[in-house]
Design goal:
Length: 305
Amino acid sequence: MRDIDILVVGDLNPDLILRGDVTPVFGQTEKFVDDASLVLGSSSGIFACGAARLGMRVVFSGKVGDDQFGRFVMQELAARQVDPAGIVVDPTIKTGLGVSLSKPDDRAMLTYLGSIAALSYDDIDPALLARARHLHIGSYFLLAGLQPDTPRLFEQAHALGLTTSLDTNYDPTERWDSGLRAVLPHTDIFLPNEIELRALTGETDPEAALALLAAQLPLAVAKLGPQGAIARRGGDMYRAEALPVAVVETTGAGDSFDAGFIYGYLAGWDIPRALRLGCVCGSLSTQAAGGVAAQPTLAEALAVM
């Protein structure tokens, strides 16, 4: 019985977001920021909330510690109608944490991996997988414990009739591999941003880079920030523009894009319309600090499409 639209597997942590046009300086130099917020972070967590906000039935599978940060993120997910049924609470580790110094057009990030890197294949409940229509993994490069078994997990998903999507996010090691070549053949939708696209392919032109990826998997989608997004399936290329908005903060905009695009994909929309919904969801999400506060409902997104 497919009563889950999307099973999300991946990183889960709060984000401490500091906003201000400042650059940190060592040597005990103190500088002021304009604002500080503790919010639900993580690529996978923000994606899950965005998909649920659009009306999808979403279950999260991840790992947290038995601590305040772990309880915070589980409460935040539940408050946004994301089912935390697949989350493992491990009292032997600490929940991960992200710290972001955010400017309107850029951000610098520090991450404590903690429970993020500890998530493994054995932590994923196969009963949840069997109930889902689609499997999404975010922050692949942070999931050291899951990376060796990600191809196996995607193969299992396909055998059960699920489609799959993958968003690697940035690779802090800058090796840009970690077994990814073995994962892509089992990935239905690959969702890098422009920086990741360039690093993964060595191509500076996004369309040329996307063509290389599209030769390895059914559908490749690249997020280009203010320039919108492009997608390639086979020999066909598609483009959608970003929605002009007053940007407050860009954390998680790419994950909100993913949620919009995957919604359209699972609803059977054509690629241009799904791409447009992704751009609208990503753009609207930047109108508040943090990745989830300004995520649109489906009605709100359709109103500006």
